[in-house]
Amino acid sequence: YLDSYHEVYYSITDRTMKSMCTMLRSLLTVSHLDLSLYGNDEITDVGVIDLMDAIQSLQHLSRLNLNLYCCRKVTDVGGEKVGDIVRARTSLIDVEVDVTETGISSGGVANLESVRNTRSFHQLQIISRW
């Protein structure tokens, strides 16, 4: 029984994200997920979309900490997918997403922030410092 999972990925690419997502989907009981893709220029919106689809399948997930700091190839498209899944995965009540120094525009950040208007969260923190 696994209740929390914490990992930092330095060298993951969109292609290797697929196998990581397969592994994530097997964490059926996980309630806390702490993932850092910090400073990764290999990850694009494609990888983020795959990751968020895997996160959507985690039925018991209540806490998500996703660090996309300095993932410069992640744009509003990836940011929108993060927002869609955070909105849809209603078990998620404690969310922190760092999109500092990504390719997500201020409008994309505002779109992510708007998730808080759709339902209640214990904590929803979108970090974006420039």
Q: Would you mind describing this structure in some detail?
A:
It is a single chain. With 130 residues, the protein is an alpha/beta fold. The protein contains 4 helices and 5 strands; from the N terminus they run βαβαβαβαβ. Strands 1-2-3-4-5 form a 5-stranded parallel β-sheet, with helices on one face. β2 (32-36), α2 (45-56) and β3 (63-67) form a beta-alpha-beta unit. α1 (14-25) runs parallel beside α2 (45-56) and α3 (76-88) runs parallel beside α4. The protein is globular.
In short:
The chain is of the alpha/beta class. It is 35% helix and 19% strand. Strands 1-2-3-4-5 form a 5-stranded parallel beta sheet, with helices on one face.
What is the general shape?
globular
N-to-C CA distance: 40 Å
Number of helices: 4
Strand order of the largest sheet: 1-2-3-4-5
Helical content, roughly? 25-40%
Sheet-strand content, in percent, reads 15-25%
Q: What value does the Rg take, in angstroms?
A: 13 Å
Overall average pLDDT: 92
Give a quick account of the main beta sheet: strands, pairing sense, barrel closure: 5 strands, parallel
